Amino acid sequence: MHGIIPYFLHVLERSLFCSPRLHLFYQKYNFTCKKTAGHNFHMQSVSIQGLSELERVRLQEVALVRLMKDFDLGCQITIPKDGQKRKKSLRRKLDSLSKEKRDKESDSQAFGVPLSQVIVNDRRHKQLQEEQEEQRSPSDRVSSLLHLMGRRSTNKELSSSNSSLSSSSETPNEGTTPSTPETALRSRRRGGVSVDCITDLDDSHSRLLEALQLSMPVESHSEKKKKTSDAKLSLNPIYRQVPRVLDSCCQHLQKYGLQTVGIFRVGSSKKRVRQLREAFDQGADVVLDQRHSVHDVAALLKEFLRDMPDPLLTRELYSAFITLDKADQYTVIQLLICLLPACNSDTLQCLLHFLSDVANHAEDSRDADGNEVIGNKMTSLNLATIFGPNLLHKQKSSEKEFSVESSARMEDSAAIISVVQHMIDTHQSLFTISAELQNELLLSLLDTDSDVVHYLLRRKTPQCE
């Protein structure tokens, strides 16, 4: 093709998901890619957080099809609902509580609240801080800015081992906050940036207009309904959805607790943990530093995960996680993670990155001067034993921990621990979406929105013209 080839044709010809219709699509748009360093451009693997909101929703559908087609898990698999879609069920549970308990739970900002709602509460907290910052005097702003820059610098050092996961309290897209009540409502409802905000995140205005003014072909009623739903989703990556309390705990423990022997096993002060919990629940601006006990913060982290109304890995996927075949463990876990709501996936990635860091400091070692450094003794197996029952369970135990004690559930408990240990050991690649899976995703979008696919490819490949 004389050095210039239709984009993806050479890749898709070798793909199981290639189709004449897809060939015609790329020929129609004459979308070409120049050779780079003497080699034709290929689709690259990307972090799941690099996908747009629309892509992440479609990824759930593609992953579900792959799981049902290629693996026999012996159980029914469904895409988990996010916390907002569970509101009716939550209301029914609240109605059965006493007025005192109901009032107490409704006031909670973090603990015992659906994860998606915690994210919404954190966004409101951030917006309130920004509004208060605007009302402060210039001298106060300078002082606050210098303090914030110092904290960001520290956070960046803590997360240098994982470039795809920011330990800072902000991400590039997180700075785009809704400017009107209507856009704010949409952002809070989905946890992402709406399509009408797309110009804030991309420089190519002509291409953005092309993406926003999509052609609408003749289609069936069901296709129109699905397309209407997709039209409300952003074509850009959504902000990192990790609860403030979990992020703060992980950052604190990474800075002060990695060398603490028996972290997560040693007891804590119930009074201090309760005070921290109440502070986060009241929406206070909590800053965890050297004054706070490592064991108190560790207990707070476990308590947050334990009190989630729905476990982080969701009840819908419980059977799928515990029945997977060892030979297919990695691939199946990766696809099951693709099924998770964005807030669950982002939070899980943050937590696993932290737990992996803890496990890397389990053994004794020596520093640069040859001095012995005592390890924390918390291997990935030990951590999985502690956190596994908190991350994946059918129902809450009556005990303070979700440990599985009955002989009838011991087998499930062992499977849960094995799955979580595997996640900790392989977390760096678990959240990477392969080129093949991206091809399936784009082919799925091509069925309803060819113009969207065209726009997404341009955004993904700035090298192409």
Short description:
The chain is mostly helical.
What is the topological layout?
Layout lengths: L3 E3 L2 H4 L7 H10 L2 E3 L11 E2 L5 H18 L16 H9 L3 H9 L7 H20 L3 H21 L22 H10 L14 H8 L8 H11 L12 H13 L13 H12 L12 H13 L11 H6 L5 H11 L2 H18 L5 E2 L5 E2 L6 H12 L18 H21 L1 E2 L1 H12 L3 H11 L5
Organism: Sinocyclocheilus rhinocerous
Keywords: GTPase activation
Protein name: Rho GTPase-activating protein 6-like
Structure description:
- The protein is mainly alpha-helical.
- The chain has a domain at 83-166 and 240-432: Rho GTPase activation protein (Phosphatidylinositol 3-kinase, Chain A).
- Helices cover 54% and strands 3% of the residues.
- The chain has 20 helices and six strands.
- The strands form three sheets. Strands 1-2 form a two-stranded antiparallel ribbon. It has a two-stranded antiparallel sheet with strand order 3-6.
- Strand 4 and strand 5 (372-373) form a beta hairpin.
- The longest helix is centred in the first third of the chain and has 21 residues, at 138-158.
- One of its GO terms (molecular function) is GTPase activator activity.
- Residues 172-182 have a biased composition (Polar residues).
- Residues 92-107 have a biased composition (Basic and acidic residues).
- Residues 156-171 have a biased composition (Low complexity).
CATH fold field value of one domain: Phosphatidylinositol 3-kinase, Chain A
Choose one word for the global shape.
globular
Mean pLDDT over all positions:
75
Give the neighbour order of strands across the main sheet: 1-2
Question: Roughly what percent helix?
Answer: 40-55%
Our count of helices gives: 20
Supply the helix-strand structural class: mainly alpha
- Following the backbone from N to C, one meets helices and strands in this order, namely EHHEEHHHHHHHHHHHHHHEEHHEHH
User: What is the level-2 CATH architecture name of one domain?
Assistant: Orthogonal Bundle
Distance between the termini: 16 Å
Keywords: GTPase activation
GO biological process, one term: positive regulation of intracellular signal transduction
Pfam family, one: RhoGAP
GO molecular function: GTPase activator activity
